[in-house]
Design goal:
By secondary structure, the protein is an alpha+beta fold. About 30% of the residues lie in helices and about 25% in strands. The chain has helices at about 65-70, 80-90, 95-100, 105-110, 115-120, 140-145, 165-170, 220-235, 245-265; strands at about 10, 20-25, 40-45, 50-55, 60, 125-130, 135-140, 145, 150, 160-165, 170-180, 185-195, 200-205, 215. The radius of gyration is 19 Å and the shape is globular.
């Protein structure tokens, strides 16, 4: 898609934010449809951020890291490392998309089916946000996405990176994903993780819900306890061509029970 309204592509390190600007990372969504309000793109690749950094504290993922880079990375023997491939595969894109689309772009786009939202929210990822004048703030990814196409970025702010803590990466995990069709957008993604130290369990719901929903238990709650907690959380289920709310709610309940059963048997 040509963007005829764009008059300049600038180095993001030098550009001062102004109305009509957009941050450019992979651009797979940005160039997929008309953007009549935009006049300038600020190229985030100018920062030269390292895509992935492993440390004793966990994993830092740059906003400009592509899905292909993330999927190819060899990680330490973290139990949760298998989630990376599972969530990357949930984005049914072409080779070109995988090598262009970025983790940060997928999160900031804030689509319910965003697989990088599923991955980072399920592992208690924390988003580092840069603002104007050198301001920095950090928000859990589960709170960063506020609804379909909405996130907590303010005008002029950008997502710098997401930190996944070592405690979450060391957890055993279970993953379930369902779509209306074999090659369809995710209608429900349920990810569970169980701590190896105390047995605490976290179940994260995405794709079916309008924003990430986390259910936390000090120990596996059993099916009745899980369903009661899910009902009390009262998630708002998304409604679009990829699934009606009532159907999404039903399959979310089923997938959550499957995740619980898998983690209880560990």
């Amino acid at each position: 898609m040509d963007l005829p309204g764009i008059t300049e592509v600038a180095d993001a390190r030098l550009g001062i934010w102004r109305p009509g600007d957009a941050w450019l990372a992979g651009g797979t969504w940005l160039f997929s449809e008309p953007q009549p309000a935009l006049t300038r793109l600020l190229d985030l690749h100018a920062f030269g951020w390292t895509a992935l950094q492993v440390s004793p504290d966990g994993l830092d993922i740059a906003a400009t890291c592509t899905l292909a880079e993330l999927a190819r990375q060899e990680f330490p023997p973290w139990q949760a490392a298998s989630l990376v491939g599972q969530c990357c595969a949930a984005l049914l894109g072409s080779f070109k998309v995988w090598n262009t689309a970025t983790v940060g772009g997928n999160i900031c786009l804030a689509l319910p089916a965003g697989p990088m939202i599923s991955l980072t929210a399920a592992l208690d990822g924390v988003a580092e946000i840069w603002g104007t004048g050198g301001a920095v703030r950090r928000i859990p990814v589960a709170d960063f996405v506020t609804g379909p196409g909405r996130c907590r970025l303010r005008p002029g702010e950008l997502l710098r990176s997401v930190h996944l803590p070592i405690g979450a990466l060391q957890c055993a995990t279970a993953f379930r994903q369902l779509s209306l069709s074999a090659l369809g957008r995710s209608a429900a993604v349920v990810i569970g993780r169980r701590s190896p130290s105390d047995g605490a369990l976290v179940i994260t719901l995405t794709a079916a819900t309008t924003r990430p929903v986390q259910l936390r238990f000090p120990a596996p709650p059993g099916p009745d306890g899980l369903l009661a907690t899910l009902a009390a959380a009262a998630p708002r289920y998304h409604d679009d061509v990829h699934g009606a709310p009532a159907w999404r709610e039903a399959i979310t309940r089923q997938l959550a029970l499957e995740v619980l059963d898998e983690l209880e048997r560990l």
